[in-house]
Design goal:
This protein folds into 2 domains: 117 residues, Aspartate Aminotransferase, domain 1 (Alpha-Beta Complex), CATH 3.90.1150; 241 residues, Type I PLP-dependent aspartate aminotransferase-like (Major domain) (Aspartate Aminotransferase, domain 2). The protein is an alpha/beta fold. 37% of the residues lie in helices and 19% in strands. The chain starts with 15 loop residues before the first strand and ends with a helix. Bound molecules: pyridoxal-5'-phosphate (PLP). Pyridoxal-5'-phosphate binds next to helix 4.
């Protein structure tokens, strides 16, 4: 069959028929351990009975109504997200890029509402990824992503990773805010220092600008706390969420304090689908699991076992792994040979991983992974490293 899908994703030669927890089963019946989770999306695993039940129940009632009407499930999800974060208000959308677009708009509008419409610049960090819309491409500033798509959206300034002085120096009379990814995902599983994150908060306070966090990948329990910013003890003003938020149902959200969202009154922003009854049911079902007593403690405990295992493999394969990094169940192994080759070798061993920037192999297992499954993953990775070393 000719493939009529636009070839923006390169080679795709494997198709899955179904999933069970951390496993995916392909159309030929082969079982894979899924340490990609659809890029940090299926955070409670595949076909989780609670999510399946919640979506089925909602599907039988009403799928979609638009935001012209009140959506009780959306209201409930917003309340639970604000009760468990710094935020007062939530805007629902459908993806990470849209959540970041909303964040950019909220930061600019918030400054306008404070009487500073001229302040519209946002500082972002080298290596960041914020999405593929024109605005978020400009925020991410990756030349490969911008090439050929015309003039870059104006109003973004970029500073080196981890350099607080450079960030402070970049704040000027037109600056409205700063956006950071507490743990860069696409950039190569690069966690920001807690002291750096605190320093960003202090700089934003000092200059009266907004601090935004893009937790599209690192949020929703991925690092062992509900949100990655929780580790630093500070509160941002705005936050973008998506990926794990709906456990596989496409949904994004932008959370903000009422001060930052002061300009977001009726008619200033909107979405046809955002937070529709099905999406809201998915978010509430994910939150039921993540907010269960002890769930995040378990993520932290298992994350340590996973990380210790990766460190041990780095000791065993010093020619293959140069560094293990990340937080919680958002882990990366920086490898010596091209990461695509290592990802392919893992797949041959029945293990799905995801390449990331800086030649990193990313491990983003479902948060429900068990100790036994972690051992299986480490065994498969060990065999893959041995195999790719032999093949070279
Ligand atoms: C994936 C990702 C995005 C973009 O999300 P989409 O749903 O693909 O639009 C934005 N920011 C971060 C940190 C991401 O990991």
């Amino acid at each position: 069959m000719t493939d009529s899908v636009m070839p923006t994703y390169g080679l795709r030669d494997i198709a899955f028929d179904r999933g069970e927890g951390v496993y995916l089963i392909d159309t030929a019946g082969r079982r894979f351990l899924d340490c990609g989770s659809g890029i940090a999306v299926t955070s409670v695993g595949h076909a989780h009975p609670h999510l399946v039940q919640a979506l089925k129940a909602q599907a039988e009632k009403v799928w979609h109504t638009s935001n012209l009407y009140e959506i009780p499930g959306q209201k409930q999800a917003a309340k639970r997200l604000t009760d468990n974060s710094f935020a007062d208000l939530v805007f629902f959308c459908n993806s990470g890029a849209e959540a970041n677009e909303a964040m950019i708009k909220i930061i600019r509008k918030g400054m306008a509402a404070k009487g500073h419409p001229e302040k519209h610049h946002i500082i972002t960090i080298e290596g960041a990824f914020h999405g593929r819309t024109l605005g978020t491409l400009a925020a991410g500033n990756n030349p490969k992503h911008l090439e050929g798509f015309g003039p870059k959206v104006e109003g973004f300034d970029h500073v080196p990773f981890g350099n607080l002085n450079a960030l402070r120096d970049a704040i000027g009379p037109l600056t409205a805010g700063v956006i950071i990814e507490p743990v860069q995902g696409e950039g190569g599983i690069r966690a920001m220092d807690i002291e750096y994150i605190k320093g960003v908060r202090a700089a934003c306070d000092e200059f009266g600008i907004f601090m935004g966090v893009d937790e599209v990948q690192c949020g929703m329990g991925r690092t062992g706390k509900l949100f990655a910013y929780d580790w630093s003890g500070i509160n941002p003003d705005v936050m973008a969420l998506a990926k794990g938020l709906g456990g596989g149902f496409p949904v994004g959200a932008c959370l903000a304090t009422s001060e930052a969202a002061a300009g977001m009154v009726a008619g200033t922003h909107g979405s046809t689908f955002g937070g529709n009854p099905l999406a809201a049911a998915a978010v509430n079902a994910v939150l039921d699991i993540l907010l269960e007593d002890g769930f995040l403690e378990e993520v932290k405990r298992k994350a340590k076992i996973f990380r210790d295992g990766l460190e041990a493999l780095a000791q065993r394969h010093p020619e293959e792994i140069t560094e293990v990094r990340g937080m919680g169940l958002m882990l990366g192994a920086r490898v010596q040979r091209p990461n695509g080759e290592v990802v392919a070798a893992c797949r041959d061993e029945g293990l799905l991983t995801v390449p990331a920037g800086d030649n990193v192999v990313r491990f983003l297992p479902p948060l429900i992974i068990t100790e036994d499954e972690i051992s299986e993953v480490l065994g498969a990775f060990d065999r893959a490293l041995t195999a790719s070393a032999k093949a070279a």
